[in-house]
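Problem 12. The chain below contains 241 residues. Write out its predicted structure in token notation.
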Amino acid sequence: MFLLTLLAGSTLALSTTAHPNTTCPPLHGAKGVRVRFPPSFNTSHHFHEPVWPAPPVGWYFKPWSMIYASNPQYAAFRNLQYDPTAINPANLTGPVNDLFSFQLPGNDTVITTYGVDTPHPLYAAVLEYAGTGILVGASSEYTLLAWGCDSKGTPYYVSYSSATNLTKTPAGIDMMSTSDKGPDNGTVSAVVKELKGLGNKEITGLVDNFTRMVQDGKRVGRNATCDEYCQSNQDLISVLG
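Solution.
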């Protein structure tokens, strides 16, 4: 996921509607929280971690609202939404449409940013982002650190994105939910505790910078779609200047 990495994007150019897998893991809420290091950290902790359970195929393909972000730049936007879909609905393990969308304060226009994610050949739930259009050359590695359902059965996930040099976007950690209200407080607290428990200075620092994103309900019924213009990322010119 790339939020320009200023922003990040994912839906399908043709408005894909692959049937999302909404399966929850056996344990919900705080008891079900399992976290991992980004495999790219190449830390010795990997050899001592229990096996991290990757989400089922297709589980990730659904609209998500950004609830918390470590990058304070994102606080300048509202109603950030991420809509990942398989480029080929018949191949749910292949490349992914990376479509992010958002609104600006005082303006209900939905702005999109798009790229293509390629699944990592070795690591589960790790994607390599590549920008399109005016963002060609922008790249980032996107890793799911935790996923599951909160105590009410609402899906969520937490991700780490590496820095993107082209857009000068720093590395960050985001928390996403299928509800714009986000996971319940107990689940959020457990995620924060477990991530800090990894004992990594960078991850702890990013989690300490978590900022609540503005989700004001103005996107209800307005999921983004992405055509050829969207894939050019021309919408971002007005944002980037």
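Discussion. The two ends are 22 Å apart (CA to CA). Students who got a different answer should revisit the alignment rule from Section 12.3.
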